[in-house]
Amino acid sequence: MNEIPATEVHRQDYINDFLTMSKALKQCQRKDGFWNVSLHDESNFGGKETSGTALFVYGMAWGVRNGLLDRKEYLPILLKAWNAMTKEAVHPNGFLGYVQGTGKEPKDSQPVTYTSVPDFEDYGVGCFLLAGTEVYKLK
């Protein structure tokens, strides 16, 4: 959205999609702050997943910072997720747990655990750092 001109014909469509998606994500956040691999069915690859959670934190923090999402409503949600990731996914040596690997389907990269090393874990760290930069900007 930072790069799309205000005069671009579909800009409002993108904003509306962002708002709709943020509202839906709010409803399916886990009690511990993470989101599951499967957003619609916690019994289908349920469990903590860091990369998706980090991207949702990034988006919501960006939305709050840019005035698209209500700060009072979304700040607690994104901070709950950020705090869960920093407390439960980051190992003492910096390794990031609960990162889903690549694959055609979620089943291709199971199990997602604290100690499992996915086949391409760098993207998870990138997502986490991206989220951190946006949370930091909320200060």
UniProtKB/TrEMBL annotation:
Gene3D superfamilies linked: 1.50.10.10
Enumerate the GO terms in the molecular function aspect: hydrolase activity
**GO BP field:** carbohydrate metabolic process
Record carries keyword Cell division: no
Q: Does the keyword Hydrolase apply?
A: yes
- What keywords is this UniProt entry annotated with? Hydrolase
**Under which name does UniProt file this protein?**
Rhamnogalacturonides degradation protein RhiN
